[in-house]
Amino acid sequence: MDGSQGQVGATAREGGAEPGGAEGALSRRDAAILAFERQWWKYAGAKEQAVREMFDLTPTRYYQVLNALIDTPEALEHDPMLVKRLRRMRSSRQRARSARRLGVQP
């Protein structure tokens, strides 16, 4: 990929549009992240290693960008089934963490 992948987070926070791109459209990087999430299991090795190689991001930063991205209407419009699934998974993990902190068995 080009060297711009190190510039993360800004497009997800700013609606995902690249400079000169259509307003409300996903950047190439954001679209690539959604495509990767749809098919990451096809890549050999650990997901974290694939994230480092494809996006030049640490796993922590990748998940920060992904979480911001799935909250955008552009991502939802681009791939509604994937974004809704990722949102459900995130919500489920958050509920499980809260239950563990409160000592409640799910």
Would you kindly provide a written description of the structure presented here, covering whatever features stand out?
The chain has 106 residues and is mostly helical. 62% of the residues lie in helices and 0% in strands. The longest helix has 23 residues, at 80-102. The protein starts with 9 loop residues before the first helix and ends with a helix. The model is unreliable at 1-21 (pLDDT under 50).
In the predicted model, the low-confidence regions spanning at least 5 consecutive residues are 1-21
Strand content: under 5%
In N-to-C order, the SSE pattern is HHHHHH
Radius of gyration: 15 Å
Terminus-to-terminus distance: 42 Å
Q: What is the overall silhouette?
A: globular
State the gist of this model.
This protein has helices at residues 10-13, 28-39, 47-55, 59-70, 73-78, 80-102. It has six helices and no strands. Mean pLDDT is 81; it is low at 1-21.
Strand-helix topology:
Layout lengths: L9 H4 L14 H12 L7 H9 L3 H12 L2 H6 L1 H23 L4
Observed structural traits:
106 residues, mainly alpha, 6 helices, globular, disordered N terminus
